[in-house]
């Protein structure tokens, strides 16, 4: 037997509200995964990869597309290593 129309609408509405809350939570807790062009991030990648083989710039750019926070962490690490000692490609 099928459910009454009002019960189906209520369930559908509850599912839509739950999905909307999940999207809001995801956007709140993981804003770095909202892939937005960031010229400042691109500039940081260029600066940190200068003097290195272009491969590193490409890989860091791919990391930035998938997770901006991880890319910023890697950039900070490389900058710290450059401050402490001369960074080689290895």
Q: Describe the global form.
A: rod-shaped
Approximate strand percentage: under 5%
Fraction in helix: over 70%
Note the total helix count.
Answer: 4
Q: Could you name the ranges where pLDDT drops below 50 across 5 or more consecutive residues?
A: none
The domain tally reads 2
Structural class, from secondary structure content? mainly alpha
* Distance separating the two termini: 68 Å
Total DSSP E strands: 0
Order of helices and strands: HHHH
Radius of gyration: 22 Å
Q: Average pLDDT, to the nearest integer?
A: 77
Strand count, sense and barrel status of the largest sheet are: none
In brief:
The chain is mainly alpha-helical and 90 residues long. The chain has four helices and no strands.
Protein traits:
mainly alpha; 90 residues; 2 domains
What does the secondary structure layout of this molecule look like, with pairings?
Layout: H1 5-29, H2 39-49, H3 54-66, H4 68-84
Helix pairs in contact: 2-3, 2-4, 3-4
Describe it for me?
It contains four helices and no strands. It is mostly helical and 90 residues long. The chain has two domains: 1-34; 35-90, no CATH class. Helix 2 runs antiparallel to helix 3, helix 2 (39-49) packs parallel to helix 4 (68-84) and helix 3 runs antiparallel to helix 4 (68-84). The longest helix has 25 residues, at 5-29.
């Amino acid at each position: 037997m099928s459910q009454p129309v009002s019960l189906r609408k209520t369930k559908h509405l509850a599912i839509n509200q739950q999905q909307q809350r999940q999207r809001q939570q995801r956007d709140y807790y993981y804003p770095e995964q909202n892939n937005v062009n960031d010229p400042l991030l691109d500039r940081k990648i260029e600066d940190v990869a200068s003097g290195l083989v272009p491969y590193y710039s490409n890989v860091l750019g791919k990391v930035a597309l998938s997770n901006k926070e991880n890319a910023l962490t890697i950039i900070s690490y490389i900058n710290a290593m450059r401050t402490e000692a001369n960074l080689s490609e290895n």
